[in-house]
Amino acid sequence: MSDLTHTGFVRAIKKLDSETQKVGAVLEERARMLKEIGEDTAAVAEMIGEMRIDTPTVEECRSLAVECGALNEGYAKFLNHLHDVQRVSEVMRETAAREDGAIQEAVDASNIQGVHDIDRLWFKQD
Asked: How do residues 82-123 score in pLDDT, each as one tens digit?
């Protein structure tokens, strides 16, 4: 990783952004589904429990509802960390853009003859 260039760094940030957005969208949908399943299962458990006909099923449904809630909490924690990574990624992207700007400012301020004739891509090359 010590050979990381500015271009490689920007590429890695973009890849991280893309991956976290995809994963985040999938996990948010799964968390929503788990919450719904947990709520529905708890409601069914209460209905069966009121009929007093199948105590083991009631307990299984309640247990499933509790597990859905625990999984949903796990998703929520993971998504919080994922959002933290996305915020850090945004800062890294802004910093990289600012650093590119600093290169241009340095070129503009330079009194080295011919510096403006150098291909701009050279300053960004890997």
From this structure: 999 888 888 888 887 777 666 666 766 777 777 666 665 565
Burial class (CB within 10 angstroms; exposed 0-12, middle 13-18, buried 19+) of 15: exposed
Q: Which of 110, 112, 107, 93 is nearest to 120 (CA)?
A: 107
Q: Which amino acid is at 80?
A: N
pLDDT exceeds 70 at position 6: no
Q: Are 68 and 38 in contact (CB under 8 A)?
A: yes
For the chain, the first-to-last Cα distance in angstroms comes to 13
pLDDT at 1: 47
As given in the structure block, the two tokens for residue 72 are 């949903």
Which residues neighbour 123 within 8 Å (Cβ) at sequence distance 6 or greater? 103, 107
In this structure, what token pair is assigned to residue 8?
Answer: 């490689």
How far from the centroid of its chain's Cα atoms is residue 59's Cα? 36
